[in-house]
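Troubleshooting log. The previous structure file for this entry was overwritten by mistake, so regenerating from the original sequence record. Sequence copied from the archived sheet and checked twice against the printout by T.R.
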Amino acid sequence: MKRPSLFSAGAFSLWLLLPLLAFTTPARGQVKIEGGARITAGATGGAGGWTITGTDPIEIRWGGEVVTAYQTGADNPKPFFYPLIGPTGENVTRHWPMKEGVAHEETDHVHHRSMWFGFGKVNGLDFWHEPGSKGKEGSRFGKTVHTGLKGMQISGANQSLTFHTTTDWVAVDGGQKICQDKRSFTLQHRDDGGFALDATFTIEATEGDVLFEDDKEGAFALRVMPTLRVKGEVAKGTMTNSAGQAGADVWGKRANWVDYSGPDSKGAVFGIAMFDHPTNFRNPSWWHARDYGLFAVNPFGQGKFEKGAAPDAGNYTIKNGESLTLRYRVLFHAGMGEAEKLNAEFKAFAGE
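Regenerated output below.
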């Protein structure tokens, strides 16, 4: 299912600025503007362009077709993107646990919710797993809580869409706030029918120092659909990185990008590539990327990933009142991921 060409719509620009006042959850299907006003129809880039509506979830369409939704509900253990519709028209991430009974899907790792951001050890709390995660009984869990949609923009001849959110990191037991973050997401339609999603996370130490302890469990992650996996029932995918490694050898290595490519359920070939921006802390980052379908970039796991490294080599403390910003790009592309094209994409991303 190929979406309309990037240039099928005329140039359109819209900016909605939402003052940073107290957030209250509006009715489903409405976009909250802080201070009381609401936009019930959301924001649109015109026929063939982007549309964004709602708050739970925040639903994003291209040419009238759903591309993704940012799931923000209070019942969720974290905000996450689901579905994610790739250039072939299929959801490219695992449906479970959001949707039961999909053929050939494994039901392991309940915390692998399509595409999300989290980490395993933050001030002694686990913001990666969830209560109910197998083997994690007795752990002290954290939860990331969406606290507001703070602005959106649809702009330019390239029809890009940007929206901004805020998130609190809190303890599941007692609700103590550990820190907060600001998130910006930009989607750009591509001529092959796919899209790029740029994600910026700014973690702010508002409640005291924030210690990220060395751990493999993190940080910006996807769980891919069954056929895209390298290993498992119906798996026909490949996994490669910018350093030339492939398959299981990608795990724990440093690279500017990692790509999963292969067929969808009907045999149409596509891929997902994730890029670590060169200005990021500890670039090129390590990758918690598994052949069974987990796909994550992790700048805090050096001691777990590198043989001979000190167990706490990946530790990092954000001092009270300071922040850490991480930038990533996820490219949902038609066809197999080719190193030359992916290196060019990384170079373009690096220049932005």
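Confidence is low (pLDDT under 50) at residues 1-41. Archived copy saved in two places this time.
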